[in-house]
Amino acid sequence: MTAAELLNKYIKFFEDRGHKRIAGAPLIPQNDPTTLFTSSGMQPLIPYLMGEIHPEGTRLVDAQNSFRAVDIEEIGDNRHTTFFRMLGNWSLGDYFKKEEIPWLYEFLTNQQSGLGIDPTKLHFTVFKGFEDIPQDNEAYQIWEEVLQKAGVENYKNRLHWYGVEKNWWSRAGTPDKMPAGEIGGPDTEVFYDFGDETVHKKSQWGKQPCHVNCDCGRYLEIANSVFMQYKKTADGKFEKLPKQNVDFGGGLERLLGAVEGQIDMFQTSLFKPTIDIIERQTDKDYQTYKSSFRIIADHLGASCLIIVNGIKPANKDQGYILRRLLRRAFDNFNLLGGKDILPVLETIVDQYAETDPIVKVQYEEIKNTILEEMQKYERTRHEATRFIEKKYQQPLHDGDTREISADDAFVLYTTHGLSPTQIKSLGYSFDNKIFAHKMEEHQKLSRSGAEKKFRGGLADHSEKTIMGHTATHLMHQALRDVLGNQVHQSGSNITSERIRFDFNFDRKLTEDEIKHVEEIVNGKITENLPVHFELIPTQEAYKMGAIGLFMETYSEKSKIYFIGDISKNYKDAYSIEFCGGPHVDFTGVLKSFKIIKQENLGANLKRLYAIVGK
Q1: What is the pLDDT of residues 417-456, one digit of tens each?
Q2: Domain with 419 in it
Q3: Which of 20, 23, 207, 588 could serve as 56's disulfide partner, Cβ 3.0–4.6 Å?
Q4: Residues 48 and 133 both lie in one domain
């Protein structure tokens, strides 16, 4: 079974059970300052899990491209990847545990409609309770009924209780960390058992015996159904939600490993062709150099998907992550004596094109971006070497190792963007303890902001951020009024302090143009125009002239926000945009609007910063 076949089988399974397939959200989130990438299938749907109406109804299914920057350092083992496809199905106040659990088991084990996984290889975990939140006896009993009906021998030995650290979900984490008003709930997870012979000699659990949630390598989590049924009250208690939701997530890559009985994800049919071509391009054996092979395959694959989302290597935000991925891949390819990286890229694109055809369409862009970064990296390494040679007044010859100060190593890290491993690959050694201390101090300076960007999660829904979100619609249309309808938004980042808005344009805006945009937006604020949304067939919205990011990803119906009175005619609206919300009800709430800065992003892209409500 190929990755594409598995994906299509999953979608069909839930479509046959009344679910509507929705388009996956862009890998680069829209209007979400808390995260650099879409990191789960649930992330784009949080507003609907919180109560907003979804245009496609209450039963949804999709495949969401996801990326987790926090997993970069994990790459090299047999099961972690930074980029993955998360298969998801949702009930928005519709069905609950008694439907979800039997469906999940059927999809995993049925030979005809599902994946045909051997049920004797599966284990199931359930929430065991926390303080005043009871253990999930309902889920446990449903699993008992399902397994007993399926004739699974000794099925009780396959059911396991775990606490809040393993079987609870909320945006804030465990129940004690949840703020008042936050929703969350227990989950049930499914693990694939590769057998006793796969257990590593050392387990993270030390002297404790291996168990289902052990990280020794024997068990692989392949599915997780979250039951969002609680809301935290002001007094710290938990009450049942009037409408309870189901949020299922299963990584396609891990599911494929279970289907193929392959404990090494990089030996599945999805990654094996890439591993094979790396062997040919390096004349090295995968079994001997597993970690480097896995890093190359994962990082180049993730880079391809990030590049087709419009990101270029840079020194901050998503561009920094892309640069980090590529340079780590280059280092490992060079370490193995790699000859030509292009055949590796071509193989990766061929593999991912089955589920993401855009990588094939944009192959030239991918290739040129990666080759250009290789050249820049070579220049960076050369400049770093020149810096050290000039300071120490002595050239470094091949095979030599030079002791440099931790201060100088840290300059190579902060100024030249070289990691400690990359610095050492140039032939330099330094005091690791002092460098680690400098790194820790450096990280403290930006930790609060970095945690928000890298952890993933919900966009800020504070009053000022919602005001800023509405203001971007007014600014977008005002820019088109002043500069022409060829102008389109290319991205945004909105916080309670400011708006950041990216758009296509080939030159710097003049002071008069900025002033004109401000005057238009402030005029619409003074008019106190109504703001509301309607669920409209997507093609009809196009005909209305609705604009928005990633328009090719919208489903059959879309949420369209109108600014202006359209009681007589939709053409009376000042702004018509595809958007998920939320927004203020009237523009007067914004009070005022001012552009405070503009930047040139290159490649005919510009960025404006603005504030509202001052």
Answers
A1: 788 888 888 888 999 889 888 877 766 654 444 444 433 3
A2: 289-439
A3: 20
A4: yes
